[in-house]
Structure formats: C-alpha cells, structure tokens
Amino acid sequence: MTAPKSDAVLARLMGPHPKKIDLSLGRMHRLLEKLGHPERKLPPVVHIAGTNGKGSTVASLRAFAEAAGHRVHVYTSPHLVRFNERIRVAGQLIPEDDLTDILKECERANGPDAITFFEVTTAAALLAFSRVEADLCILEVGLGGRLDATNVITNPAAVGITPVSLDHQQFLGNTVTDIAGEKAGIIKAGAPLIVGPQSAEGLTCISAVAASLGVTPKLNGRDWQTTLLAGDKGFRYEDWGSAIDLPMPVLPGAHQVTNAGMAIALAHAQQAVSIPDAAIRAGLGWVRWPARLQALRNTSYNDILPDGAILMLDGGHNPGAAEMIRDYIKRLDAVERPVTLILGMMGTKDAPGYLKQLSGLVDRVIAVPIEGEDGAANPADLAAAATDVGISGVLAKDVPSALQMVTDKAHADRPPFVLIGGSLYLAGNVLREIGEYPA
What we know:
CATH architecture of the largest domain: 3-Layer(aba) Sandwich
CATH superfamily of the largest domain: Mur-like, catalytic domain
Number of strands: 17
Distance between the termini: 17 Å
Number of helices: 16
Strand order of the largest sheet: 4-3-2-5-1-6-7-8
C-alpha cells in the first residue's frame, strides 16, 4: 500500500522537540494563538479523561449523538493503523489531502519553535474542527489531563472522568491519588462533571478538585448507575432524572455497560444538544471501538486456527484493562475452552500486574515482539512474568507463529479461545496485517 502523503509531514513533526512527551500547555497556547485560536471556534465540547474506558465512552457518546441526527467532531488517540483515525470531522475520518494540508499549515505556523508531536497534531485537529460546522465536539484526553494538549477548552458543555488506575506513572505520578489529580485537571467551574467508578483514593482526590471549583460531581453509584437485567438481556440505567431499560451494548464485555452508562450520563448532563432515549437505544446497537475485545472473523489469522476457535483482539495494557478481560473470559459459553493469550507489551507497562489479573483463567501466554516499536518489552521477559504468576509462558517470533502453536496443541472437541492483547501498537499491527482498517 502506498504511504499516505501525510506520513512525510508527520515524520517531520516528530522533530521539533527532543522529547516525545513533555507535558505543558505553554507551547500549545502559543501555537493556537498563531493559528487564530481555533479552540475558541468549536461547537460545544465534551471533554473526557480517565485511565480505562474513556475511548469506549467517547465512541458511545458519539453514537448516541449521531443517532440523534447531530454532526459530531471527535478527537481520540492513539491511532491503530492510520493517523487520520484520530480526527473525525463531522462524522467522517479526515480525508488524506485535508490532513496533509492542515498539518503543513500548523507546521508553518509553529516555525522553528519547540513543540511536541502530540501538541502540534492536536492543534491540527482543533483547526480542522473549527472550519467545519458541527453540533458537538468530543475530545479524548491524550495523557493525564491537567497539562494535556486538549486542556485548552475553557467552557466545556460537560466533563467526564472514567475509572482511574495506575498507568503512565513516569509522567503522572506513582499513586492513584497523583494520577487522579492530573486527570481532574480538566474539571472546569460551571461545567457538569460525570465521574465513573473510582477507587476510594481516586474519588477523594477528584471530589476535592471539583469542590475547589464549586462543582458538584455526578458520581457513579450515587447519582447514576447501571444494573444488569435478569439473564443479561439488557441493563437498566438510572440517574438524577430518568430510568431506562436498554439492550446490551454491541461492544462486548460487562464493563461496556458501565462505559455506556458513563456516556448516557454525559449525554444527559450536557445541555448543548438534544439526545433522546430513542437515540441512545439506537446508538448502543451500532457503536464501534476497534481493538477493545474485538472479535476477528474470516481473516487470514482465523484461517490458521482450527474450526470453532474464537479469536479476539484487545489493546488494553494495564491491570485495570486486564481485570475487564478477566471478567469477560469468566463469562464465556459453557464449552470448556483452553484460553491462550498472545501477548506483546511496551516496556514501560506493568506486565506482572496485567498478568496477575489473568492467573487461573489463561492457560498459556505466548509472548511476541511488537514489530517497529523499539520500546517494546522483551518477549522473554513477558514469558517469565507469566510463569511467575502461574501461567505457562512461551515465545513465538510473531503472531502467525503463535497462532500456529495454538493449532498444534488444539483438541477437536475443545476449540480454543485466543486473545491477542497487551498493546494498542500490537493491535494496530494485527489490523494492518489482516487488512482491517478502522473507518
């Protein structure tokens, strides 16, 4: 496949700052001023931070708003296969020519000044959004919140903080309290605040920041909640003004009910656009969020596995994500399936913490490298970490080889369940390899 024209510009934009991540808002404000302050020309913004579930919450809220007939801008990160996945303009991924042009415009405006890749590309997204009419704009925080490049919005229509747990400690702090404080940095006086399930320390921190700004948060379990209906045939959502019985989200996993509830609470809290219950019901049926317990079917990778095998892909990379995977595996059908995790992770991630959540459920871990990522963990270290928590850990040179290893040990009467997981970078490589591009 021919490389997109934007790739050359994106490669250049890796150069203006010596660090990949350097949390600060000064450079962002400077560039936005040069661009004519596009952040002030956006439709009403819903701003969402958190460690786990924020991407699914963004995707669900977008589905609800679009089902209600609204045009919605969406900014997310990272991308899986192509950069333009990050910038959805009025419902469509930004076209390649538009992306190239707007990146070049931001590059020229920035000139020789230092700026990180995420800052300049976030500015490009805001510039693109400012030039196309829409009814709502949903911004996902990239890292943290307080100093994240998206935190240039002064009067959001609503703010959401999904569950906070340990991740990116090298940038955000070593405790949940530290990290929650950074996430809470997106709270704004006067903006409704929806808070997802939190640990005691995370909730204490978020509530303190909210109180300092005169904001009364709407908390999961107090102001809004979700409850599974009998037989998992749906769920009930209740909040400060409504109670609705809804079908299960099309996104798999019980945790997606909570994520859907978070999105419904945001839809109800914001007052910028009307999102009726009928649109919420419709959106639950078609929301998409790739590489989050995504079932892979009829791909070249499925062809390697025996008949009846289940193959799934997940980009979660921290203990909180593994906890949700664990809950999903526990709810598999009654057929006793051997469970294999094909695992690739970045070296900065907590592999032992991730794997500990899966001990007793996963029969074998096959550790693989992540092609093209210098910071990926050594597969031998991942296999050793699996063994340390009581899971058999072995190595494979790549994902297809790992799948073949599963097939070689499979029994005809016990088709395997295989999860490829541990990294969005690995997930992106898989989707690229099998030719499934997020749209």
